[in-house]
Design a protein that fits this description.
The complex is a heterodimer of chains A (429) and B (292). Chain A has 429 residues and is an alpha+beta fold. Chain A contains 19 helices and nine strands. Chain A has a six-stranded mixed sheet. Chain B contains 13 helices and no strands. Classes of the chains: A alpha+beta (429), B mainly alpha (292). At the A-B interface, α1, α3, α4, α18 and α19 of A face α1 of B. Chain A: Keywords: Cell membrane, Lipoprotein, Membrane, Palmitate, Signal, Sugar transport, Transport.
């Protein structure tokens, strides 16, 4: 009787062990897929291009670029796919899992990294050595990863953050908006003044620190081989301590630690805080969403090192037309096409040749134009502050530990140790 | 003349069987397999033995999530077992306009859990209806942190689940009450039993089986809670992630390019066993009660 009962269980176990190999592939590798052609190979045939949420706003721009590419390389045909903004990561993931990545695909660095690890992306640097000469250093570096050899995308367009200050709130607290804080410590000091002078009614700061702030404080996030997190240092703990003390003293709004927190930028737009960070054209959005802010928003360079946001075009390792795919990625991201794109949307070109373009480097004196020029100038020293390997559950957990430390429920060092332990566990799993 | 061959029943069963194998059995087996690996969405993974389960033992997030799930079940179970029965007894009466009340109690069930949770979020936030009213009435001096305090957030989510579940279980009880013989009530009334005694000695034993079924349904859904906590906590699991449920953890670990499918599968296995335990206990209670 007992053996009869055990038979199906044993059969199931055998089946499970037999199937254990299903869906499981090889482990990570450390070098990217190498191209089999160089940049001078003949360009012809069909090639697919996938962009992210450019339709319908930029349809005519992209179609113009495609037409120009097909004219430059007779015999080529570009099939353009544009994916909706929401759920793009899931779309790319399903394409990659099915081995159906388009030949040229728009991927930010954190999307490109897992694909590069699985040798799904071509090392475009090997096919096109001029990439590091023609594109800005930060842009190219964003597609070079610790522990992997190669460059896995052409930087397409860049952005960064600058600081915005509310001059009315500064004046109310007796602060001079013409010389705003330049470092985090100055920011804290100004937050205290604003709190004390307004009886706690006005706030300057309303954001939680993150990995980018640790990088800015000189904390090393990842080991050199990219295999271990190590940001649980006394410097990082000291930074969290400063935030915790500021929170406790009431310099930050209470709901910053909860889901009710709308974000620095929204609170600034609603005139609830006096400082936010934002891109070069964020000032236009503030004034559009809250016209009473007109003439009251003063831009200045970001505190410490500005963050660098990069978008790029990667080439699928499985493309059947490497020559055309590389040529297309290079063509779409060349100085001329990027400059044209940057004039219809608020982005900055990633090509070195665009640095001299007066459109980006000369202000007409309006705050909007000042902000754009400031952002453009900031790009020169901007860096990717958060390693692309930090995403999903790792990011959530780090955020949760930081919240606990700032709320004073655990010490800063405990929070960092727990965050590093979990991040390492997730990294090695 | 025979039209029926030996395989005819099998042909009829095949579609359902195929569906069951592909969408139920295979995913379950695959979850067990994945729980012993370090699988990721891209590139698969390798066999890691019991490592995921070892990690689970030291996972503080899981401890909080399990505690939340157990509290959720312990609070929801009595409320959702008893209150809908009382409601059903009330609306069972044939009074003018009673259909309105039946419909009103059932309305939250029809509404999507996400929409309901969003409405509750607006009601409960610092500037929401509850805090606004309480402040105007002078009951409180500052807003109560319904959505920013670990325990108040959990309590808010539990209240939402109870409010939303009342109508659903009320309908099940209504059907069960129809089977309780009217003559029993009449006989008891003749013997001098009041409404309360009739409720305790006739109604409750009459719907006992349904009560056990409802208890099992409530336990399972309380342990697998997701939408209410997810929406009320803004998807982040509350302050410090201490308002996560096990299902929320599974979602967090499995999402994205770097999702840890192996670990998420191990969490699913834990959830499975945690869910099965109260089911078995309640089923045993039912059997004992039936035998007694």
């Amino acid at each position: 009787m007992r053996s009869r009962r055990l038979t199906p269980v044993a059969a199931l176990a055998v089946a499970a062990l037999t199937l254990a190999g299903c869906g499981l592939g090889s482990a990570d590798t450390s070098s990217g897929s190498q191209p089999t052609v160089d940049a001078n190979a003949q360009v012809t045939g069909e090639v697919s291009l996938q962009t992210w949420a450019l339709k319908p706003k930029f349809t005519s721009y992209v179609e113009g670029v495609i037409k120009a590419f097909e004219a430059k390389y007779p015999g080529t045909k570009v099939n353009w796919l544009d994916q909706p903004g929401d759920g793009y990561d899931k779309k790319v993931l399903s394409q990659a899992s099915a081995g159906q990545l388009p030949d040229v695909v728009n991927l930010p660095p954190d999307f490109a990294l897992p694909l590069a690890k699985q040798q799904m992306l071509l090392d475009v640097g090997a096919a096109d050595p001029k990439i590091s000469e023609e594109y800005v250093e930060g842009g190219v570096q964003a597609y070079q990863y610790q522990g992997l050899t190669g460059t896995f995308g052409y930087p397409w367009y860049l952005n960064t953050d600058i600081d915005y200050w509310n001059s009315t709130k500064f004046a109310a607290a007796g602060l001079d908006v013409k010389s705003p804080p330049k470092t985090f410590d100055e920011l804290l000091a100004a937050a205290k003044v604003m709190h004390d002078k307004t009886g706690g009614r006005e706030y300057l700061m309303s954001r939680l620190p993150g990995i980018g702030d640790f990088t800015n404080a000189g904390v090393k996030i990842l080991s050199d081989d990219g295999k271990k997190f190590e940001f649980n240092t006394p410097e990082a703990a000291a930074l969290l301590d400063k935030y915790r003390d500021a929170y406790k003293a009431g310099y930050l709004p209470r709901d910053i630690l909860t889901q009710e927190y709308l974000g620095n930028s929204k609170l600034f737009t609603q005139s609830k805080v006096a400082w936010t960070t934002g891109g070069g054209n964020a000032i236009q959005d503030f004034v559009k969403d809250n016209p009473s802010l007109k003439g009251k928003v003063v831009p200045s360079p970001a505190l410490d090192t500005p963050p660098l946001y990069v978008q790029g075009l990667s080439v699928s390792a499985k493309t059947k037309n490497q020559a055309a795919a590389i040529a297309l990625a290079r063509f779409v991201t060349n100085a001329e096409n990027q400059a044209a794109f940057a004039k219809i949307v608020n982005i900055f070109p990633s090509t070195k040749a665009s640095a001299q373009d007066p459109y980006f480097s000369k202000s007409d004196g309006t705050p909007e134009s000042d902000a754009k020029v400031l952002a453009f100038e900031s790009l020169a020293k901007a860096k990717v502050l958060t390693p692309p390997i930090i995403s999903g559950a790792t990011n959530d957990f780090i955020g949760q530990q930081i919240s606990l430390a700032i709320a004073g429920k655990i010490s800063s060092q405990q929070a960092l140790d727990a965050a590093v332990a979990k991040a390492n566990q997730l990294l090695t799993q | 003349m025979r039209y029926q061959r030996w395989f005819t029943p099998w042909v009829l069963v095949v579609p359902a069987l195929a569906w069951l194998l592909v969408f139920n059995l295979w995913p379950s087996i695959n979850t067990v397999i994945l729980s012993f690996t370090n699988a990721k969405p891209l590139g698969g993974g390798t066999f890691v033995g019991l490592r995921n389960f070892e990690t689970l033992l030291h996972d503080e997030q899981l401890r909080w999530a399990l505690l939340n799930s157990v509290i959720y079940m312990v609070v929801c179970l009595p409320f959702l077992t008893v209150l809908p029965l009382l409601l059903a007894v009330l609306v069972e009466k044939k009074l003018p306009g009673i259909t309105f009340f039946r419909t009103a109690f059932y309305t939250p069930v029809v509404a999507s859990a996400v929409v309901v949770a969003l409405i509750w979020q607006w009601i409960l936030d610092d500037r929401g209806l509850v805090n606004g009213l309480a402040e105007k009435l002078g009951v409180i001096s500052g807003p109560l942190p319904f959505l920013s305090d670990q325990w108040l957030l959990l309590l808010s989510a539990i209240s939402l689940t109870i409010w939303k579940g009342l109508g659903y279980y009320m309908i099940i009880y209504l059907a069960a009450l129809g089977n309780v013989g009217r003559e029993l009530h009449e006989a008891a009334a003749v013997d001098g039993a009041g409404p309360f005694r009739r409720f305790v000695h006739i109604t409750i034993p009459g719907v006992r089986g349904t009560m056990i079924l409802i208890s099992i349904l409530i336990s399972v859904s309380a342990l697998r809670v997701f939408s209410e906590l997810f929406i009320l906590s803004g998807g982040k699991g509350g302050p410090g992630g201490r308002d996560n449920s096990v299902v929320m953890l599974i979602q967090q670990y499995s999402q994205g390019f770097e999702g840890n499918l192996g670990y998420a599968s191990a969490l699913s296995i834990v959830l499975f066993f945690v869910t099965v335990v109260p089911m078995l206990v309640l089923a045993r209670l039912n059997r004992r009660g039936a035998e007694a």
